[in-house]
């Protein structure tokens, strides 16, 4: 069965890049793939060799965050209001569950789909007629377009499936309430959008007909949803391996990175770069810090044992490392896990970063520091432990083995083809 696959990607590199290995696995198997996204990142997507179509207006996430009002000298980032990590627990208060669902539906999800995105995507889907739409878990224009053209559709999750967990808990809350009090913010938002294209609201518009999930099984949040596991294959764009990275390190090497998203979205930087460099100064290690000029602007002196580079491909750098210090972003953490490197996580506090950091600690693969408790001395102590205590390397090896046992993108392709045949609404567009 030949399938056409439309991928709806959020125009942020950290969200686009994980799609690329699966997209090329589909292409290599003889299927057609097209990526749709707002204009912000179409040139970078085209450089992956995939076909791309711009839809909607530019999202400009960086400008949106930088123009938010100030309070107590801190930017009001709506993601800070969304305490999604609480959904890893049971026994949540009903009002809390409903309140978070309302906040997410008001502040979190709709802005990503404004600017004519839904209409443009539906128009393109009805012309191009995909058999399958794979959509970013935050971009609900994807399932609307799939319903409007009769395609099967699946979510791609980035990190822990907090949305699936939130939806599951909210449905439990609604079931306990009298019929007249069963408010459903997600349905109230999406139902009118679907109706514009002659479609009815169904639960899969929120959680997908199935979910493509790269998270190691032992770290995955329990839900009743159909999750299709996929091995994370690191991708960071086309890069040239520098000469220094081709040489064997003379000392134990430590990777220090704050990820791509913190550069692109310019949000509140929780980790102070000067403290990070102070923590590793004079240790008998070689530190490779992927920091750009803006991140180093307030640093008066870089320690002698630190090499700063604007960018280095993590999938080439990490195999040479004995430890990693990072911010807990999806792509960074997944790549660290895939290479079995013990880690210290400095979570930004956004989305699932703190929860993932705790799961890494609980798995014995690393340590983490709460953002507001980070000190240079504390980080130094953690790094010495992670480097010197063999248990951390053993824990990291266990998670690496778990990831290697997950199906590769090419092995997932037949599964997607079968599910597409089962869910595609032929002739209904």
UniProtKB/TrEMBL annotation:
Residues 24-259 form the Erythromycin biosynthesis protein CIII-like N-terminal domain. Keywords: Antibiotic biosynthesis, Glycosyltransferase, Transferase. InterPro entries: EryCIII-like_C (IPR010610), EryCIII-like_N (IPR048284), Glycosyl_450act (IPR030953), Glycosyltransferase_28 (IPR050426), UDP_glucos_trans (IPR002213). Residues 275-418 form the Erythromycin biosynthesis protein CIII-like C-terminal domain. Pfam families: EryCIII-like_C (PF06722), EryCIII-like_N (PF21036). It comes from the Bacteria. Belongs to the glycosyltransferase 28 family. This is DUF1205 domain-containing protein.
């Amino acid at each position: 069965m030949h399938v056409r696959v439309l991928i709806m990607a959020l125009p942020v590199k950290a969200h686009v890049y994980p799609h690329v290995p699966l997209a090329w696995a589909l292409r290599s198997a003889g299927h057609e793939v097209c990526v749709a996204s707002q204009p912000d990142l179409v040139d970078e997507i085209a450089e992956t060799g995939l076909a791309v179509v711009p839809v909607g207006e530019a999202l400009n996430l960086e400008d949106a965050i930088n123009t938010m009002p100030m309070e107590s000298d801190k930017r009001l980032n709506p993601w800070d209001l969304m305490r999604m990590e609480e959904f890893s627990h049971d026994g949540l208060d009903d009002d809390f569950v409903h309140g978070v669902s309302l906040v997410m539906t008001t502040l979190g999800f709709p802005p990503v789909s404004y600017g004519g995105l839904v209409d443009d995507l539906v128009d393109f889907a009805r012309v191009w007629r995909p058999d399958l739409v794979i959509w970013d878990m935050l971009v609900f224009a994807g399932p609307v377009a799939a319903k409007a053209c009769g395609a099967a559709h699946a979510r791609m999750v980035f990190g822990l499936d907090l949305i699936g967990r939130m939806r599951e808990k909210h449905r439990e809350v609604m079931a306990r309430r009298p019929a007249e009090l069963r408010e459903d913010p997600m349905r109230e938002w999406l139902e009118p959008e679907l109706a514009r294209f002659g479609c009815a609201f169904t639960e899969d518009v929120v959680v997908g007909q199935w979910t493509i999930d790269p998270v190691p099984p032992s770290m995955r949040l329990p839900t009743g949803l159909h999750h299709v596991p996929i091995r994370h294959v690191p991708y960071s764009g086309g890069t040239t391996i520098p000469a220094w990275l081709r040489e064997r390190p003379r000392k134990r090497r430590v990777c220090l990175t704050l990820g791509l998203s913190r550069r692109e979205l310019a949000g509140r930087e929780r980790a102070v770069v000067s403290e990070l460099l102070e923590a590793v100064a004079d240790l008998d290690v070689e530190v490779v810090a992927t920091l750009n000029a803006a991140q180093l602007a307030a640093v008066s002196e870089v320690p002698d044992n630190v090499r700063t580079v604007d960018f280095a491909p993590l999938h080439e750098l990490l195999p040479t490392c004995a430890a990693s210090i990072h911010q807990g972003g999806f792509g960074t953490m997944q790549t660290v896990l895939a290479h079995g490197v013990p880690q210290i996580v400095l979570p930004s506090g956004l989305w699932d970063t703190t929860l993932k950091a705790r799961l890494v600690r609980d798995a014995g693969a690393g340590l983490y520091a709460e953002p507001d408790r980070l000190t240079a001395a504390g980080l130094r102590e953690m790094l010495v432990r992670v480097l010197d205590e063999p248990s951390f390397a053993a824990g990291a090896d266990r998670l690496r083995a778990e990831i290697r046992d997950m199906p590769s993108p090419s092995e997932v392709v037949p599964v997607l083809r079968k599910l597409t045949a089962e869910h595609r609404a032929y002739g209904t567009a």
